[in-house]
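Open question from group meeting: does this chain pack into something compact, or does most of it stay loose? Before anyone orders reagents, we agreed to write out a predicted structure and look at it together. Recording both the input and the output here so the notebook holds the full record.
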Amino acid sequence: MRELAAVKTVVNKSRFFAHLYEVQGEEDLKDILKQHRKSYRKANHHCYAVLIGEDEGFKNDGEVGHPGQVLLELLKKHELRGHALVVSRVFGGVKLGVGGVSRAFRNAGEGVIEHYSRK
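Structure tokens returned:
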């Protein structure tokens, strides 16, 4: 596992910490999520998507708006096989609604992918 890029975005006081990783297998993903839970203890949700070979997966981690699926669509759109996209959200007290949550996770995911592409 190797972290390629990380960005922080803020939407209505909620903070979104997006990270893009190069991964080899499911064990890498487990290690990444363990680290995110430790690094972002105040985060209510740690949503992710992963593409490894022909396998794909995502998790919404109890968040509304299917953010894991949104992140998976980004990995596919940018043809990032062998990668994981993880976004941890620290709730800021303002509910974003289903559409707002999806947009916020999409923007955070696009932001970290764009940051990686510029390197």
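Observations to bring back to the group:
The chain has one domain: 2-118.
The chain is about 40% helix and 35% strand.
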